[in-house]
Amino acid sequence: MPGSGRRLKRVKMAEEDILAERRKKLAGLLERGVEAYGRRYDRTNPIAAVTESSERVLICGRLMAWRDHGKAAFADLEDFSGRIQLYFQRDRLGDDFSRVKDLDIGDFVGVAGRPFRTRTGMLTIGVEEFTLLSKSLRPLPEKWHGLKDVEIRYRQRYLDLLANPDTRKVFATRSRIIAGIRRQLDQLGFLEVETPMMHPIPGGAEARPFVTHHNALELELYLRIAPELYLKRLLVGGLERVYEINRSFRNEGISTLHNPEFTMLELYAAYGDYRLMAELAELLILNAIDELFPDSGRRLSYQGREIDFTPPWPRLTLAELLRERLDLPGWDDRSLLLERARAGGLELDGSETVFDLLDLLFKFRIQPGLVRPTFVLDYPAEISPLAKSKPGQPGVVERFELFIGGLEVGNAYSELNDPIDQERRFQAEVRTGRPDRPKVVDEDYIEALSYGMPPAGGLGIGLDRLVMILVDTASIRDVILFPILRPVR
User: Fewer CB within 10 A of the terminal residue: the chain, N end or C end?
Assistant: First the structure.
C-alpha cells in the first residue's frame, strides 16, 4: 500500500525516541540508587482474586495503561489472572508521589493498597506504596497496529502474548487439555515414562529423520520420529500400561498442519487391541471437551462447521469409504486408482505407486468430508508394518486413523508381537524404502520381541492438532509457542 512504508518508518522512529528517553530515565534511576530491576515481591493476591471487601492487598504485574491528572494518576495493572485500576494520589503518597514519574507503560510494579470502587463502579486500588520491579525500555506493541503481522506474532511470541489476551487463553487451554489427559491416564493405571529422543537408528514411523552426531562416541544419531519401539520394549519388560507425552521430530515440510517439532501422546496397553484404543481415544477427548466446555452439549464449532462429538463415533473401514465415496472395489488396482485420481484433478507425475495414489485419493477426496469424529479402520499391511494382521483378511491389518474436522488426529494398531513376522516386514521396508527415508532392521527390537511381548493395543494422538480443533484455529503455529519458521532474509 502507498504510504505504508512511510508509516512504518514513523513508527520505528517513534520507538527509537521512546527507547532513548527510557534509557535516559533508567540512567537517572541508577544515579539515585534506585534498583530498576528488582527482587522478590510477596503478593497477597493475584489480581483476579481482589474484591471490594478485600483488606489491604499486595499485588504485582505490568503497567498496561496510564492516565495522568496532575495531583493524581490512574493506571491499569495486569497479571496473568486479570487487570485492575490503580489510583496514585499525592495526598495519600506524600513525597513518594514524585516517584510516579519514574514509571512507564510496560514496567513491572508491586503495589500495596486498599481496594474501593470509583463513582463509575470500577474496582480500584488506592495505592499506598509501590515498588518498581522491572523497567521496560521498549514501548509495548499496540494490539491492532503493532501485531497485525502474523510473522511477528510467531517470531516474537512474547509480544503476541503481551498484546493479545486470546493468545494467552489458547496456551492456557492447551495446558489444561494435556493436564487433563495425563490425569485421566493416571487414573486408568497407565504409567508415565520417558524414552530416548536420540536414537541410534531411524525408526518408529515413516518420515525423514533429523541427523545429529555425538562427538565423544563418534556416533551418528537420529532425533526420534516416534517413541513407539522403545515404549513397546517396556511391555516386554512387564510394564503393562505406559504412556509418554513426547516431542517428536520429522525433517519434512512446514505448513499450517505440520511443524518439524511436535507433541504426541503415545500409549500402549497390554492385552488390548485397536478397538480398545478407539474406546480410549473417545474417552480422553470427550473428557477434555466436558472439562473445557461443560455447557456445549458436546457440539463445537471448528472453522465455521459444527462438529458433533456425541458418542459412539462412527467406525468405518477404509474399504467401505473407498466403495461409498469413490466407487472403488478395493486398493489393489493401480490403473483404477490412477483413473480416479486423474478424474479428481490431482497432480501426478506418473511415478506414483498404488499406495501413493491411495494416499492422495484419501487425503483430497475423502478426508475433507470426515468432519464428525470418525475412526477409519483396517488398512493395507504394506503401509502398516507394525500392526497385527486381521484374521481372515489377507493383506489387511488391525489399524485405525481418527479424523476430526477433516484433520487426522490419531493413529492406532493392534500391535504386531510376532518377532519372525516383524523381522520379515522390516526387511521388506529396507528393500522398498525411499533413499531420503532410510530404513534399518531394528535388531534389538526384534530380539526384545523374541522374549515375548503380550498382545497389546497402541494409540498415538497428535496433541497439537487436537488443540487446534478445540480452540478453533486453522494453523498449528497458533498452538505451538515457538513454531519453526523460515529465517528472515
Answer: C
Query: What's the CA gap between 175 and 193, in Å, rounded?
Result: 19
Point out the annotated binding site for Mg(2+): 401, 408
Annotated binding site: 401, 408
Question: Domain ranges in the chain?
Answer: 13-140, 162-314+372-478
Pairing label, strands 191-192, 123-134: unpaired
How far, in Å, CA of 361 to CA of 326, rounded?
9
Half-sphere exposure of 324 (CA within 13 A, CB side): 8
3-state helix, strand, coil in the chain (%, to 5): 35, 25, 35
User: For residue range 464-481, what is the model confidence (pLDDT) as tens digits?
Assistant: 999 999 999 999 999 999
Residue 13 confidence (pLDDT): 57
Q: Which CATH number does 162-314+372-478 carry? A: 3.30.930.10
Q: What is the pLDDT of residues 78-88, one digit of tens each?
A: 999 999 999 99
Residue 358 has phi, psi (to 5 degrees) of -60, -45
Q: Report the pLDDT averaged over residues 363-373.
A: 97
Helix/strand/coil for 209: coil
Confidence of residue 12 (pLDDT cuts 50, 70, 90): low
The Cβ of residue 471 has, within 10 Å, a number of other Cβ atoms equal to 19
CA dist 269 and 118 (Å) reads 59
- Looking at residue 142, its pLDDT comes to 72
8-state DSSP, 381 = G
What's the predicted TM-score (pTM) here?
Answer: 0.91
